[in-house]
Amino acid sequence: MHDTLDEIVLYSTVACGPLSVILMKGQCLRLLPAPLAGCEKALLWSWDGSTIGGLGGKFEGSLVNGSVLLHCLNSFLKYSAVLVQPLSRYDLLATSDSS
């Protein structure tokens, strides 16, 4: 997670990089925040590297469908803060085209 935190600081400093949202442990979301609403998929990382219900894990994010993102976030947030990077359909197409 430290590498991810270093990347966020770098993204903030140079004002570029992927959109990232950090949510605090203990929050309970009724709706997805604006940057996450409507995303096709999202990458989730638990802040402390813990694994919850097969999601998360140290140094690896979990790719989650947008249709279950709210449920996954609320499950994660009971145990850890969460870093989320929303992916649009265009992000996913660009990734598959480059491989």
UniProtKB/TrEMBL annotation:
<comment type="similarity">
    <text>Belongs to the FAM91 family.</text>
</comment>
<dbReference type="Pfam" id="PF14648">
    <property type="entry name" value="FAM91_C"/>
</dbReference>
<protein>
    <recommendedName>
        <fullName>FAM91 C-terminal domain-containing protein</fullName>
    </recommendedName>
</protein>
<feature type="domain" description="FAM91 C-terminal">
    <location>
        <begin position="8"/>
        <end position="90"/>
    </location>
</feature>
<dbReference type="InterPro" id="IPR039199">
    <property type="entry name" value="FAM91"/>
</dbReference>
<dbReference type="InterPro" id="IPR028097">
    <property type="entry name" value="FAM91_C_dom"/>
</dbReference>
